[in-house]
Amino acid sequence: MNFLPDLTTLSPLHVFLLTVLLTNYVEHPSYQWPLDYLTSESYCKSSNCEPNACSATVSDTLPKFDYIIVGSGPAGSTIAYRLTKHFPDRNVLLIEAGAEPSVESIAPKMWAFNLNTSVTHNYFAEISTDYGNAFRNGTDCMCGNQIGGSTGVNAMMYVCGTDKNYNNWAALTYDRSWSYENILPLIKKNQNNQDPKLTSGQCADYHGTDGPLVVTSSDFDVNEDSLWPILKAAVEEKGSRQLDDINCGPPYTGLVNVQSTVNAGERESAARAFLVPIRNNSNFYFMKESFVNKVYFKKENRNLLVKGVSVLTKQPSCKKIILQAKREVILSAGAYGSPQILLRSGIGRERDLRTCNIYQYKDLPVGRYLSDHFLSVHYYLMPGNLTSTIQGAQAYFGNEGGAFIFNHTGYFTTAGFNHNWFINTKDRNSDYPDMQIVFGVLDQNLLDIDVFFKEKLGFKDEFADQLIAANLNYSLIQIANVLLQPKSRGNVKLRDCNNPFAPPIINANYLDDKRDYDTVLRSINIINDFMNSNAVKSAGIRQVDLKIPECDIYKRNSENYNRCYIKYFSQNLWHPTGTCRMGYSSDENVVDSKLRVFGVRKTSRTPMLRVADASVMPLITSGNTQCPVYAIGEKAAATIIDDNY
């Protein structure tokens, strides 16, 4: 765990919470991450720790691993866990580009303190005049750069998508093993759901209780959040339904308090759930702060074979090593990381490789078909309560910090964005949503609110200052209006041919398809109507009067105003998918339904190459993507075990 934050830059509350967290968790067994193989005695003995030990094209002194997995996010950690357990006589190596998670990652409410730090890849989409103009750097595309990947920095929401999502995957791949009927058992296998109301009631068949990943419901969100009863009353007034469980459908439309990957009040990351339990297994090896540059190929009798994996490390005695696998190399570096590795390796479209003078081994659409959950964000004022004064805020947050540390209860046990309204903007009676409305409350006089808006979300000062000023006298309701099934597609390309650490070119292309624009506009109208309900108005809630010069020439909430508003207050939900997508042929896909890269052969001397992460999704799921990516990890592990190369 990263125990050395720069305390001089932090607020008194932040310093207090960090101090208590460090005192209580520095030796906690749940946060004892896997030992780094590069600093182990066995590695130093094999390489002699000489500066040139890894300069050779292939280092014969290093052992061959049976399996090499790149990336320790939800898919990579799941695969490592399953293979390590199933094959005790085979060596499994997991390589992670990042270091230990930050101490802030323990407390769910402090999730935002991880954003735009060393534990995230701080990527941005190419600037567009059509969206993201309220933000200094345009559209943020950050993702996790730590043990556990993005599960260490996300908002922990556990939404598995609809049955149609997986049935569509099965149809597009011509493979029924990807159908909901066949994926649901893998979701259950992965999950340790600890809400007895869901595991013993009518939704019991949709949840597992024996898996490594703890999933819980937040009592605080339901019992102590003042917004929840208002939302329930407004939904009833508007004739919508309330759901007990979004993962037990259809129907998948309605107001619901979604579950979270939270364990005893603390974040349940992929690292905590899957890597800590196997850290002492003799056949499990782990490398942190080790960046996989490329996969080396060779052609033999017209067959494309994997030769090795090039790794750049931070170890002072070894800057570059080349590792070899006997059976499989699995890329689980995410929808930005996996395509970059393949492109640097010579897998991709010729025109994308030509600019970097990279030899093309296989013509596949690597980096194409990027799909993410685009959103517009809206703000409302709500009368404050316990935190209506600075002194009250300090006392409240201080007391809640103590409740979290000593009782694992209260305000800090939830990210605060679990109130979700799933709607269909065309058919209010449909069981399947096209938008996800995410409600969150930023309490009045929220400490570090300036850090949240300016440093973490990256708002320009002229917009952040308006929201900060509003928070002095009111709590802020933040509403993310999320497009669930976007039709627009972007792409990911290499930015710097000579620097593998350079951020990629991300052409997001949000709203390129007019159907996406129309869906978002319809949803904004529904939100405006919902927030104008008697239940909401009687609570004293009203829209923040944001000043946007370009938009203020239009009537507030008119179609022209909303179109202009989208140009400014819009982002994505950090759910990139599709860049190494799965399909039945290599014409427009990168991997087959077994997640094998098209064109790469497995021989008795060379390993198979697979991709297993969000990048393989043919279509994005209707909700937060961590649950589906865990399922992809389980599917990949089961396939690898079944193939038994």
TrEMBL record:
Residues the entry annotates as binding FAD: 292, 574-575
Chain ranges of the Glucose-methanol-choline oxidoreductase N-terminal domain: 144-167, 334-348
Required co-factors: FAD
UniProt KW keywords: FAD, Flavoprotein, Signal
Alphabetical list of InterPro entries matching this protein: FAD/NAD-bd_sf, GMC_OxRdtase, GMC_OxRdtase_N, GMC_OxRtase_C
Domain of life according to the entry: Eukaryota
PANTHER family per record: CHOLINE DEHYDROGENASE, MITOCHONDRIAL, GLUCOSE-METHANOL-CHOLINE GMC OXIDOREDUCTASE
Protein name: Glucose-methanol-choline oxidoreductase N-terminal domain-containing protein
Species: Polypedilum vanderplanki
